[in-house]
């Protein structure tokens, strides 16, 4: 008879990144550069933050990759279309290996089909009564953050960590209400 063993829960990492425009490619399309990454393992109180201006882009990327490879499931809002491809672009630019395939839950892309309601993280959280707020950034705040001014670096940290905290609670509520599709494999 086969011996059964208790399976451990998936090690789940919720993350977000912020970026700034870098150069024009033509018309109004710009390239971008990551300016902040925050990540937290579900069930842990420790928040990891990596902010450009406090550390180099290469150090930020390597620190995030370390967390990424330790996880079984990656969670975030619009991560398969924005955050993960953005990070992969930065890895390519730095001559580093791409992120490996990973099981993902995207609280934007995996939301069950609906219409007539915004699926932005802030709107979903407020609609569902999630008690965690997104840190809003005005144009002057974004300018300061994107210029890597000391006050702007602090704003980036506040924004990216608030997004992770809110998304963790948003995902919990979406799961409780059965509004998320099953995780999907993200393959670069």
Overview of this protein structure:
- By secondary structure, the protein is an alpha/beta fold.
- It has one domain: Ribonuclease H-like superfamily/Ribonuclease H (Nucleotidyltransferase, domain 5).
- Helix content is 38%, strand content 23%.
- The protein has 5 helices and 6 strands.
- Strands 3-2-1-4-5-6 form a 6-stranded mixed β-sheet, sandwiched between helices.
- Helix 4 crosses helix 5.
- The longest helix is centred in the last third of the chain and has 27 residues.
- The chain is globular and about 45 Å long.
- The model has no long low-confidence stretch (mean pLDDT 95).
Q: Biggest sheet, open or closed, and with what strands and sense?
A: 6 strands, mixed
Query: What is the CA-atom radius of gyration, in angstroms?
Result: 17 Å
Termini separation (Å)? 40 Å
Give the helices and strands as they follow along the chain: EEEHEHEHHHE
Domain count:
1
Strand content: 15-25%
Task: Give the strand order of the largest sheet, numbering strands 1, 2, ... along the chain.
Answer: 3-2-1-4-5-6
Note the overall shape: globular
The CATH class designation is: Alpha Beta
Find the count of extended strands (DSSP E, 2+ residues). Answer: 6
Low-confidence stretches: none
CATH topology type: Nucleotidyltransferase, domain 5
The helix tally amounts to 5
Helix content estimate: 25-40%
Coarse structural class: alpha/beta
